[in-house]
Structure formats: structure tokens, C-alpha cells
Write a structure and sequence with these properties.
2 copies of one chain form a homodimer.
Chain A lengths: L10 H9 L9 H12 L5 E5 L2 E5 L7 E7 L12 E3 L2 E3 L3 H17 L6 E7 L10 H8 L8 E4 L8 E2 L3 E10 L3 E2 L14 H9 L6 E2 L2 E2 L3 E9 L5 E2 L2 E10 L5 H11 L4 E8 L9 H10 L4 E2 L6 H6 L4 E3 L14 E3 H15 L1
Parallel strand pairs in A: 3-6, 3-7, 7-18, 8-17
Antiparallel strand pairs in A: 1-2, 2-6, 4-5, 5-19, 8-18, 9-15, 9-16, 10-14, 11-12, 13-15
Helix pairs in contact in A: 1-3, 3-9, 7-9
């Protein structure tokens, strides 16, 4: 099967074509090759390649540059390929998350030789797996200049809504300590699991903030996502670890969020294990406002962490906006509405024409 | 090296001899063979064998029968064989736990052709590993008649003190449940780890009983020995399990102890995973009182669970009494005092002569 892509196809047909080129994380080469080949046929674009990521840019000297980005990979196939159409719905692995968004971006790349703003199209690998392998993270480290811009649209599934910014996330281990003893003589020990009671009490009493940032309301959360302790069935345990996950609004930096967690658990040993910054929605920027006008609807806050944060780290305000239904992402029965793909394409064309 | 045992040797020398026949749990054959061979040379004893356990009995028709028992196995050798003597101390794997006790029992078997009470000597395998493989448990199921008696002395290390009965032990899982949700939208879930706070509060507030049973004071304990919960770093967990260990005094049956735990955690899902009954000290029985008079000292309650409970299950009151130091058991630097071995032998001879 040739993997040549025809960017003059209808956007729904193009989505199906791309879905049928299997591209589970780490195995995106065939699709990345096809995307690169199709973009290199377009004389108005400069095309770059890094691993299985492809970046294509107009160089028209416009006063503004926008970035349109999407990942090429999918979660593992679950007997849901090849794609199939039923009425308005296209079924298959990656239809919603996020090959429909990739198809829209490719259509724009081909259809807009002279967009109203300079455009950078970014297609990257390994978004669905551990953060360290993320292609966009790699590009941001190796080629930050390729990602430069005034505003970015990440075409993740949002059901056609604009989701601004994203909340940050961090994980920390709250450690309680005790002293081991045989459980037949427990009074010679100090029970570290019992000592975790006030840690859980703090979590139960915690009141999450709902701050408004750049006009969008966020909703934080501080939760235990893991607890572990115990040496053996006859030993008073000397350590208990409560792992908490703090989801924080974009009015806090990662450092401020860590400081908050340290303060909440003051007096306890707190170990930060990982974290990712939040991103402000950036909808106050004129190019973002023009985008909102063009595609319509009321922007809402993005609560989950997404790659828009990587753009924020480069100083590029970013939003999520795509035709897929986020509730269908990673589902065996994943699908996308063909009408929503076409609506999304129309909105983006309107913004950039 | 021949494994023939000379029961006319001094009890300290005999201990060293037995220590040097390596017998880690599951690998007791050489020592069991040597014990059986030595006992079969004694015409006043009837000898039985089951696996690597050896039972020898006098059949004098006395009004009382006492059981003297010890296990042949040791924990794994830790570079602490062969044995060596430094002053009064004999060093080596199993010196304290409990080959010095085994040596005393073998000396009694040889020295007392006509003891004042009929005696059953029990040497068994696999005490140091999982309960299901315990040789005494196997004997109690296959040959309960071999273990019959009015009183039993288990020659485990007690530093020469009489430790009466033993506390029972049970483990239970206290389960809290919630509802999974993505931690970015935690308010759609119910956090099962947070729900474990009142379980830990119950444990922190618990006041352990110190009941007096047959004149000995016991000391109970109810403790968490394990806690686990968590699905993934970004998921509100739907289950948390607190594993508790209840050590209970011998005025409660296992069933009563379970009922107590159910009552303490009323309203929670409680799953009992394992349990072993307690044993009353039985020191009120005349043959036990004579034993206490003969060996001297003030009996104390045994808090840990030991094989005396298996005797209790057969209706035989039992105590722990042996020359080893329990604090040295399972240590790399394990040792026993030669004087304590001789004292123990003298006390037992006095009781049975």
C-alpha cells in the first residue's frame, strides 16, 4: 500500500486515509514520511524534519506568525482499524485523537499559499507515551526557533470548543516515618502508617481554588493518588508514603505550586517527583482574539495538562481546538463527526484567509 | 564427616556437634537421621519417624505424660558455621534458636530411662518457614496421638525463663472504596485513600488490653502492618486497603478476636486473611506447677505467637522454656551461653528425675 497523501481530497476522506496509516507511538515513520513528502510538494513551504516530526513554515514576512500543531501518534490499536464510515461518523483508532486535527492542518497547509499570518505547521511523534519521549518537547529543546510564534493552536480533540491554556500538574510524596518493631510487641515501635492519618486529614480538609485567569475559570485539585506502607505482616512499619497530585491553575508557576504543597504539608518530609508547568490561555493577545472571533463559541479553561504548556514555556500562548470528541479519545469505539471536521476546517480557513 | 551423635557428651559439646550438622528449613534430613539413629539406640524409647520429624516416647505407664519439643531447622546460614567457642559463649547458626534446646532434650532422652513422668520427645522440621510446612502442624494432623500429653515444654529460646502460653494473631484487610476519575477533574470521583483517614483514626485511638490470664499479664496490640491504594499518578483511586494485625490474649478465641475486629471497624468492609489461635499458659495444672518449681524463676506471658498454640489446639497446655537468648535468634552473630544450657539441663533433669 502506498502511503502517498492527496491533500486535495475532502478533509473527511483525508482523515480516513491518515487513520489507515497505523502510527502507534514509537512507530510513526510511515506516516511522518507521507506527511513530509506531501508537504515538500508545496513550494510555498519550507520543510524541516527531526526524527519522526515534521515542521513546515510559510516565510511571507507577515507581522504575525501562528503555529498549528498536532501529534501523529495514537494509542495502541484495539481491533479498530481500518477506519469505517457510518453516516456522519468516521470510526477508527486516532479518528478523534487526533488525526482529524492533523488532516485539517494538512488541508490548511495545501490550501493557503498566502495565509493572512505566517503559519508554522508542526506534526510530531510520541505524545501518547511518557513525557520524556514527546516529540514536541524534543523540538522545543533542539529547535526552539522552529516553534517560534505569536500564538499556537494545538488541534487536540475539544469537540470544536476553544480550550484555553492548561492547568499544571505536580506529584509529591509525603513521607511519614516510624520505628520498626515486631507486631507482637508493637509498643516498642512507632507506626508510620498510623502517622499518615493527619496527612489524609489535611487532604480531606483541603479546599480547592477556582481562580479566574485571563477571563477563564480554572478548578484546582489536591489529591492522594497513591499510598504505600508496610514491611511484613508481623512488623510495625517504619515508613509510609502518600503520593499526592496537585493540579494547579496557570496563575501559579511550577515553583509556586511546589511551595504551596510544601506549605500545606508543613512539618512533613515532602519529595517532589515530577511536575509540569501550567499555561495561561493568552486569549488577550490580538491574534488570539481574532482566532476566537473566526471560529466562534465561548472559550473555556483547559483543566487537564496538555502540550500547550510546552508552547507556554517558549513564550507562545496556546489553545486546544480540534474537531474530535475528547470523551472518545483512547476508546475502542473511537470516532469523529465528519461534519465537525469540516466545521473546524472552515473556521480555521476563515481565520487565516 | 559422620553425623553420628554421642548423647553421653557434655550438653555444650553436643550442642556444638548438632549445630555443625547444617539443617536449614527443608534440608533437615542429615540431622533428623542422626537424631533418629541416636534415639533408636536407647531401648527405653519407642521411636517414630514422619518425614524429617522424629518422635520418641517412654512407655512406663506413669500417671502423667509430658512432651518436650524442639525444631531441628534453622534460618539460612550466614557465614556463621562451623560453630566456635569463645569463653562461655558458643557461636553459630542455630546455637540459640534452638539447637541448644534440642541438645538438652536429647540429653534427657538418654539420661532418663525411668523419668518420674512419661515423656514424649518431639524433634520436628520446617518451623522457620511458612506455617503450612511446619512439621509440628503436620504431626498434629497425621499423628495427633504421638503428641498427646498433660503438659508440653517447647524448648524455644527464652533465656532460661518460663514463657507461658502465647498470644493469638490475625490479619484483616479494612477496605475503603471510592470512584475513579481523572485527577485533572477530581471532583467527578470519590477518593478511597482519603476515605481511609477514619480507619487510621480508629487505630490511633485504639487502647490495647492488658488482661491477666491464668496469672500472667498479656499485652495486646492492633496495628496497621500494610496500606495500599492507587491506580495511576493521574487517577483518583477507587480502593484503599489497610491491613491490620491484631495480637490477642489467650482469653479470646480466634472467633472472638475476629468479632472484636469487626466491631472496631463497624461499617467498613473487613476481610480476614489469616489467623492463629492463642494458647492459655496452663500453669494452673499440677504437672506445670511442678515444672515451675523445678526450674525456678517467675513465669511471664509469651506475647509472640509460637507453636505452643498447636499443642493448645490438641488440648495440651504448653510453655516455652529454653537456654537460648531470643534476641540472638536469626542474627548473624547468634550465640548461646554454655552455662545457660547446663542450667537448663539441670532444671529439666530435676523435674523429671
Amino acid at each position: 500500500m502506498s502511503t502517498r497523501l492527496d491533500l486535495t481530497q475532502d478533509v473527511g476522506e483525508l482523515t480516513a486515509r491518515i487513520v489507515d496509516v497505523e502510527s502507534v507511538s514509537g512507530d510513526e515513520k510511515a506516516l511522518a514520511d507521507a506527511v513530509e513528502e506531501a508537504l515538500r510538494l508545496l513550494p510555498h513551504l519550507t520543510v524541516e524534519r527531526d526524527g519522526e516530526s515534521v515542521v513546515a513554515r510559510t516565510r511571507l514576512g507577515r507581522g504575525e506568525r501562528v503555529v498549528i500543531a498536532g501529534h501523529l501518534d495514537t494509542v495502541p490499536v484495539a481491533g479498530n482499524l481500518p477506519s469505517r464510515v457510518e453516516g456522519d461518523l468516521l470510526y477508527g483508532c486516532g479518528t478523534s485523537d487526533m488525526k482529524s486535527g492533523v488532516a485539517v492542518a494538512l488541508k490548511l497547509a495545501a490550501a493557503l499559499p498566502e495565509p493572512s499570518r505566517d503559519v508554522t505547521y508542526v506534526f510530531y511523534d510520541c505524545e501518547e507515551i511518557e513525557a520524556e519521549r514527546n516529540g514536541l518537547l524534543r523540538l522545543s529543546r533542539r529547535h526552539p526557533d522552529w516553534l517560534a510564534g505569536d500564538f499556537a493552536v494545538l488541534m487536540e480533540p475539544t469537540d470544536g470548543a476553544i480550550e484555553g491554556g492548561c492547568q499544571g500538574t505536580l506529584r509529591a510524596q509525603i513521607v511519614t516515618r516510624g520505628k520498626r518493631a515486631h507486631s507482637a510487641r508493637s509498643w516498642f515501635g512507632v507506626n508510620a502508617i498510623h502517622a499518615a492519618q493527619p496527612v489524609l486529614a489535611i487532604l480531606n480538609a483541603y479546599e480547592a481554588r477556582l481562580p479566574v485567569v485571563d477571563g477563564l475559570e480554572y478548578h484546582e485539585g489536591l489529591n492522594a493518588v497513591g499510598i504505600g506502607g508496610g514491611v511484613a505482616g508481623n512488623v510495625i512499619p517504619d515508613e509510609c508514603v502518600v503520593t499526592v497530585n496537585y493540579r494547579f491553575a496557570p496563575d501559579l508557576s511550577l515553583e509556586e505550586a511546589q511551595a504551596h504543597v510544601s506549605e500545606v504539608f508543613e512539618g512533613y518530609e515532602v519529595r517532589f517527583t515530577d511536575g509540569a508547568a501550567a499555561a495561561r490561555p493568552g486569549l488577550t493577545h490580538p491574534v488570539a482574539a481574532a482566532f476566537v472571533d473566526a471560529v466562534g463559541g465561548t472559550p473555556r479553561a483547559k483543566l487537564g495538562w496538555t502540550d500547550v504548556s510546552l508552547f507556554a514555556g517558549l513564550g507562545v500562548p496556546a489553545v486546544n481546538y480540534g474537531p474530535g470528541d475528547p470523551n472518545m479519545a483512547h476508546q475502542q469505539g473511537e470516532f469523529v463527526s465528519l461534519k465537525k471536521i469540516a466545521d473546524c476546517e472552515r473556521g480555521m480557513l476563515g481565520w487565516l484567509s
